[in-house]
């Protein structure tokens, strides 16, 4: 099956695209986009892979669902399009970066700048129906993104995995921790952050410290 994904990933994931679950998934997604408003835009569904090529993966951040409000989702987890106000979780991410590294709040919540440096911003489910969180779960996306995580875990070395919240921790359960650096903390959503489960995790400086130790370029957060 032809999938419009960056060639570096196409080569690595080609076996997934021919599996029955993936064909069913693509049929479902095409029907949903034809019948109702869905996010992100069709040409942004695989944006996380377009901005962060397979060879360039240094860090993986796992999210759950794309944002389901107008013009928010751009195919990268936690990221919003330019000009869109920051959702609460993203505000808390930027607050932690400011406290951890002294980097002031950016002008945009568009995290393409991270992805271009080798941060794979991977949602477990890559599409969603407008105003209906979780509406495209259990259709096959989770199986696909599990395969992505497994491939990175098995074939690469010294990748930093940032698992924020219970969902991401479950999703990252099969990562080979003898080969990679895994950091876990609470979710940056207000519900979790306000209970003391997010702030002070220092994941951003810890990530850069590890990358530096391995002779890799640090991420300019």
From TrEMBL:
Places the protein is found: Cytoplasm
Domain called Uracil-DNA glycosylase-like: residue spans: 49-211
Major subcellular site: cytoplasm
UniProt keywords, alphabetically: Cytoplasm, DNA damage, DNA repair, Glycosidase, Hydrolase
One of the Pfam families matching this protein, by short name: UDG
GO molecular function: uracil DNA N-glycosylase activity
UniProt KW DNA damage keyword: yes
Transmembrane segments: none
HAMAP family named in the record: UDG
Protein name: Uracil-DNA glycosylase
Species this protein is from: Flavobacterium cerinum
Lineage of origin: Bacteria, Pseudomonadati, Bacteroidota, Flavobacteriia, Flavobacteriales
């Amino acid at each position: 099956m032809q999938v419009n994904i960056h060639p570096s990933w196409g080569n690595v994931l080609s076996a997934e695209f021919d599996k029955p679950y993936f064909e069913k998934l693509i049929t479902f997604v095409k029907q949903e986009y034809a019948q109702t408003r869905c996010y992100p835009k069709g040409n942004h569904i695989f944006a996380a892979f377009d901005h962060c090529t397979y060879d360039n993966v240094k860090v993986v951040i796992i999210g759950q669902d794309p944002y389901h409000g107008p013009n928010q989702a751009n195919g990268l987890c936690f990221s919003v399009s330019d000009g869109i106000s920051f959702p609460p979780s993203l505000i808390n991410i930027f607050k932690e970066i400011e406290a951890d590294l002294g980097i002031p709040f950016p002008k945009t919540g568009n995290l393409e700048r991270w992805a271009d440096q080798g941060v794979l911003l991977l949602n477990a489910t890559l599409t969603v129906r407008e105003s209906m969180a979780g509406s495209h779960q259990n259709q096959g996306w989770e199986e696909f993104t599990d395969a992505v995580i497994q491939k990175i875990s098995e074939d690469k070395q010294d990748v930093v995995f940032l698992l924020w919240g219970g969902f991401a921790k479950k999703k990252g359960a099969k990562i080979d921790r003898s080969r990679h650096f895994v950091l876990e903390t609470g979710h940056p959503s207000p519900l979790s952050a306000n209970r003391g489960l997010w702030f002070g995790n220092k994941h951003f400086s810890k990530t850069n410290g590890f990358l530096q130790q391995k002779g890799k370029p640090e991420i300019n957060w």
